[in-house]
Amino acid sequence: MTGIPNFDSLFRLDGKVAFITGGSRGLGFDIAAAFLQAGASKVIINARKEDGLQKAAQDLNSIPNIRGRASFIAGNVNTMESVEKLVAAVKEEVPGESLHILVNNAGASWGGSFEDYEDWKTAKTFDVNVRGPFNLTRKLVPLLAAAGTPSDPARVIIMSSVGGIAVTHVGRDGAIAYSISKAAMHHFGRNLALELAPKNITTNVIAPGWFPTRLANPAIEKYGGLDAASADNPMGRLGLREDIAGTAVYLCSKAGAYVNGEDITLDGGKRLLGGNSNSHQTDAKRIARL
Ligand SMILES: NC(=O)c1ccc[n+]([C@@H]2O[C@H](COP(=O)([O-])OP(=O)(O)OC[C@H]3O[C@@H](n4cnc5c(N)ncnc54)[C@H](OP(=O)(O)O)[C@@H]3O)[C@@H](O)[C@H]2O)c1
Question: Can you give the residue ranges of the Ketoreductase domain (predicted)?
Answer without folding.
Answer: 16-210
